[in-house]
Each structure stands twice: as structure tokens, then as C-alpha cells.
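seq as requested:
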Amino acid sequence: MKKTSLVVGVLALFVTAGCTSKQQIEKTLVDNPDIVFNAIKANPKKFVEVVNEAVRTAQETAREDEAKEEASRMDEEFKNPKAAKVEDGRVIFGKKDAPITIIEYSDFQCPYCSRGYATVKEVLKQYPDKVRVVFKHLPLDFHPMALPAAKYFEAIALQDHSKAEKFHDLIFQNQPKLNQDGEKFLKDTAKKVGANLAKVEKDITSEAVTARVAADMEEAKKFDFSGTPGFLINGVSLKGAYPFPEFKKIIDRHLEKK
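C-alpha cells:
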């Protein structure tokens, strides 16, 4: 039997058989794969269109499922927010008694964290009296200058919180220089913000600084933040460098509850 007649014959069998089981059809196609191959060869353009449409449908379904899962997770966290510590002596950006607290877990050398930095600045601009930001540390192993930068930040904070905030801003604004010049850039920036460099160099190895950074990393791990940046917005988590509208959606929902 020629291939084309085999295709026609099998299709005719499916039609005339009436109630053909799925198993029968599958067995026929497995035993005679030329049926599928010849159908593809007969109309390759249509085959590609069908496959592409199936891929698009699968992707859309996956996105819809992810969105549903994310919405469900967020609803649960609004009911049972994650409780992060805000210890005495922490550097706080924004109004200290603001009703919305954003805990940011960040890495000074991470390019996505520089996007997060810009977004947080926009959040503080749009909600000057409603939001405060507590900057915490999650230096990643493959960013060799992230941990030293975190320690410099906390060492400067022991002297002056406003100088630590300026240091934070300058590092993110000039991240390529951190990558290029390493600790020299950290020292230059510490001096630029007016910190006592000799004291900073002493304090970066102190128990207070080392323990604070370690505690931040452990807390981030507890909340399942493995990458950076990560945020808790009054206990509701965002994992990644989300744009401003995603922050706004969560902040406004919190404010409506209040």
C-alpha cells in the first residue's frame, strides 16, 4: 500500500468505525507514523501555524495560571503578612513614622537592584508621608563587592544615617565604578559623603556590622528571598525589580484598609 493510500485508508477507518477509542487511534498512529509525517509534508505551512498557535495558547494559559497563583499568594499575605524586624539604629529612608514600611533586601552590585533603587525613589516621591523604606542586605556570592559595600554602608550608619543614605545613593548611581574600582571606590565614596574613613575601616570588621548584615541575610532566607532585589510592603512580598505600578497597587490596597 502506498503512503498516501495508507493515510486515506486509516482516516476512512476512523470515520466508518463510529466509536473509535483514543487508544485505537494512538496505536494506529504509533504503528504508522507516516500518517503524521505525510500530513505535515502535505501542508507544512499550516502545520507550523498550528504549532505556533498551540505554543501561544500554552504560554497564555501558563501566564494566566501564574497570575492566579500570584494573586492568591498576595491575598494570603495581606491576611497574614510576613513580619520583618526593624531594629533600633536602622537607617530609614522617608518619614520615620509612615504607615507603610517597605523592607528592601538588596545587593549593591546587582544590576536589577539598581532598577529597584530607582523604583524605590519614585515610591518615596509619590508617597512622601505614607511610606518609609528600611534598607537591608542580601549580598550574593557571585558579586564580590556586594558584601564589602554592605559593611561600608552599616559602618557609615554607625556615624550618621544621612551620610549612609548618601553613600547608598552614590553607589547605585555609579554602580559601574563599583564593579571597576572595587574597594577604592567604596573608600572614595565614604570620604565623599563626609564619613570618618579611619573609623569606617575599623567598624567594617566589628561585631555590630558583621552581625547586622548576617541577620539581614538570614531573614531574607526565612522569607524565601534567594535573589535580589526583594521587598516586603507591610509584609506583602515582591520578588524582583518590579516597576512602580506594582508597588502602587500594594501600597494603595494597604492604605484603603487603614
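Residues 3-79 form one domain.
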